Amino acid sequence: MIIVTGAAGFIGSGLISRLNQEGFSNIIAVDDFSKIEKAENLEGKTIKERVERSSLFEWLDENNKDVEFIFHIGARTDTTEFDVNIFNELNLDYSKQIWEKCVAYQIPLVYASSAATYGLGELGYDDNESLIPQLKPLNPYGDSKNDFDIWALKQEKKPFFWVGLKFFNVYGPNEYHKGRMASVIFHAFNQIKATDKMKLFRSHNPDFKDGEQMRDFIYVKDLIEVCLFFMHHRKDSGIYNLGSGKARTFKDLVTNTFLAMDKTPDISYVDTPADIRDKYQYFTQANMSKLHAIGYTKPFHTLEEGVGEYVKDYLSSGSYL
After folding, report:
1. Distance between CA 221 and CA 300 in Å, rounded?
2. What is the pLDDT of residues 119-163, one digit of tens each?
3. Are strands 214-215 and 248-249 parallel, antiparallel or unpaired?
4. FRET partner for 175 with CA separation of 20 to 30 A, picked from 4, 31, 82, 257?
5. Residue 275 belongs to some domain of the structure
6. What's the top EC group for this one (predicted)?
7. pTM (2 decimals)?
8. Is residue 148 part of a domain?
9. pLDDT in the model for residue 278
10. 27-45 mean pLDDT
11. CATH number, domain with residue 36
12. Is 261 inside a domain boundary?
């Protein structure tokens, strides 16, 4: 059996779809299933059992001998939430318990970290584990992810195989439920569909023109392929970046969304909200050499390929992965 936490969410549900394609059907889907807005993400997928998030550890104590792998994808990911207690409970403490069960029952683990741990990128975007304690995230979400990375690295007792993946800016199908936290492509598609126009944040940094703020955007299908690689690889434990390795501008992103919708780009700019202006990242780019060095060779989608497929095959029809 393979456990996927955050199973009804954006990345978790896509991962289950890919596992099903690979012939894995004994999936234990873990989530807070009271959130009915995510229910469609699991429709049509082959799942052995649904386990409520709060019941996982009791379930593991009873069924651990049958568990082959854990993907811990679930987390509170709202970067605008500032209640530290929520992140301590759902991201930090919950992850520690999963780790400890993986140690006790010798279960390999892949968990989701985040590029939010890098803050403003003062130390760059290298997945050098010696730098992790020096990173300065910009919000409680980033703090919770970095605090767990630091805790994991300090542990004398570790799962026999474990990997933390620092997800950069992920986009793709099954994010319909995410509201404000959905990707810019998702919001651009809906805004363009309604108005034939798109508004982006103005730059408040003299080093960047409006719309030329840059992010490392990664298509969710590429991220999932890396997860599967580690499930089969099961060596070279540690913390890895997971981005495309190539920063692109928000103007590029939205222009490609217009083109995928067969519309002429019409982009204007509004001030970045004052409450997030001093915490706004103007550039992120994953150094991906560590992953490539252990043998990962699959090419990532270009921004043009990823946006085109997402818009034409999923957003335009409301389809799910």
Report:
1. 9
2. 999 999 999 999 999 999 988 999 999 999 999 999 999 999 999
3. antiparallel
4. 82
5. no
6. isomerase
7. 0.95
8. yes
9. 80
10. 88
11. 3.40.50.720
12. no
